[in-house]
Fold:
Amino acid sequence: MNRFERLHELLGQKPRANLGFFPTPLYKLDRLSERLGVNLYVKRDDFSGMSLFGGNKIRKLEYLLNDAKNKGCDTVFTYGATQSNHAMETATAVRKCGMTPVLYLAAHVNPDAADIRANLLLDTILGAEIHILPANGRSTKDTIQASTADIAEHIARLQQEGHKVYDIPVGGSTPHGVCGFADAYIELMQQTRSMEIHPNVVFTAT
Structure:
């Protein structure tokens, strides 16, 4: 068994929630390939769902929210900036899984309550419990870090009320979450093999 097959086998042992639309398309950029003198393909992971506005966050959430469901959680906390794709995709997926989303969002520009828009509007429509944290010139990470005690108290209070909380860090970067991108690699390699493409270099943007 080669490394690719072994990785596929290992990931198959980790169940995931059915949230996205896979495989995402892989196709050649003909005009750009001609211009650059290379065969350039793009994998459209922005089509992975559940929303076209959320990028590929759903890959991680399939593994994270399956873990939350297996642990009997009814509430999911996560974090980001006020227009965070991760926070919006999490709220969407959490609702689909029948749980309640709680978002702590760092405001680099304080939102106008009379003119909520973009991802923050979607968070609101989804009925997420939203807590706005003024950034005051700090990074998103530092803003959320400064509220750690308040967040821990909030989680403890919910747990005392009988709720079970699943806590997802900024971006969903946990051992469970990163399985989604290992799975993306397997999917890409399966596509290139079926299309008889032999890539020399694979670039990923973060």
Observations:
- Strands lie at 26-28, 41-43, 75-81, 100-107, 129-134, 165-167.
- The CA atoms of residues 17 and 62 lie 5 Å apart.
- The chain has eight helices and six strands.
- The two ends are 31 Å apart (CA to CA).
